[in-house]
Write a structure and sequence with these properties.
By secondary structure, the protein is of the alpha+beta class. The protein has 15 helices and 20 strands.
Length: 504
Amino acid sequence: MIIKEELHKLLADTESFHVERTTSKTDTDKFCQAICAFSNDLPNSRKNGYLILGAQDNGELSGMKVDDTLLLKMTNIRTDGNILPQPVMNVAKFSFDKGDVLVVEVQPSDIPPVRYRGRVWVRVGPRKSFASPAEEKILTERRLSNIHTLDAMPCTKTTLEDLDIALIKKEYLPQAIDEDILREDTRPIEEQLASLGFYDLNYHCPTFGAIILFGKNPERYLPGAYVQYVRFQGLDRAGDIINEFKFAGCLCKTLVKMDNFIETAIAVKRPIPVSVLREETVSKYPYWATRELLMNAVMHRDYESNAPVQFYEYDDRIEILNAGNLYGKVAPDNFPNVSDYRNPFIADAMKVLGYVNRFSRGISRVQRELKENGNGEAEFDFSLITAFKVIEHISTKYFEAGFGSEEVEVTHKADSTIQNSGNTTQRLGSTTQSTTQNEDLTTQKIILEALRNNPTITREELVEMLPFGENGVKYHLQTMRKNGIIKHEGTKRGGKWIILKESL
């Protein structure tokens, strides 16, 4: 960070391509535009840029007082997701006799072009402006020579035909690029994608990041690029598989499916009486926290691995395992306060699509939401060397009250108490057994209704129709036949289902 003697020199000099002064404390747009322009470093000087608050154009101090609120506001610019890729910057306060000065020191980005709300800003001499197409091309070529992460590397066996261009134009570009700029942009799609880091103009092919985000068949080039959900009965993988599902395809589509799945199938809610007149809604696993943990696994995973993201649900917990341990500057002793990105372009795209809200702050909110919901804090396992695992325990509040008449009554006995110290796994005894029974009943009611509507439906058609996976459908059909609820007459293809009991 700049020292006071160097600041004196900057104040005495005229404004240039790497210095901007202002007396404003509130013009956030102006601050962000300047930071974006300094990050892009169009002259390729490799000099840091300086935004100086509290100084007039002639270098005289304005008498500004810098408080903690202003310091926090300027610091938050780095992580609020409006400037992408994230700027590398430092913020410091300097006090003089005539007033305070707040200095934002910005390092040139290694992965330009950097955008503020979809626009590329650059400095031309002492002023800033939008980048022209030629200037943006210069920045794009500079990024190609600097970046070495997998998602920015060319996927040389692919062409534009491997991308869902209609999806990119309809779903992504309008969110990533300012509307006015997009309307006026007449460049070929290759150059548009290259400016976002998704096409390599040197090799004339999409990047791995583009294939992961928008590819028609990402698994063809990255076999592990999917999420595997399995619901096991019991407390380990030795139990029967109740449900399973594979979230495959490009992230731009599967993120929506995963989001909906967590909300409808994982974050099961029930009202809990708080007083005679008030109820509190509690989830078995809170929606936002579970979603954030899974999205982080997708965003930070090592896509060179052939292993999928494992999203496994047991009677007492959810485990999420992804290939690739802590990356770059992140270590067990500074997690989650320090962030680094194995896949920076995928991370940026997930922010654009709305699946990352604020960088570096998600885990703190996850832990708070889990504690408030009665799940206890998530446990992070850093010991796996080549993988990263997080454990989310089931909510204890979920079982305290609010059971309907159709559900099994739960009693908390001594042998079903919860052990929750250190890394000990929660064991809920009879409580979680009741949960599994209730889940089975709900699933079987859905299957029963499907058989009632179409008695000739095949098992394969049920798998296509229902979100339970092949093993899940097979498990429940066998259970329902064993319990005398249904039976099947005739051949496998030409027979029909007979319902023996109308209710479960």
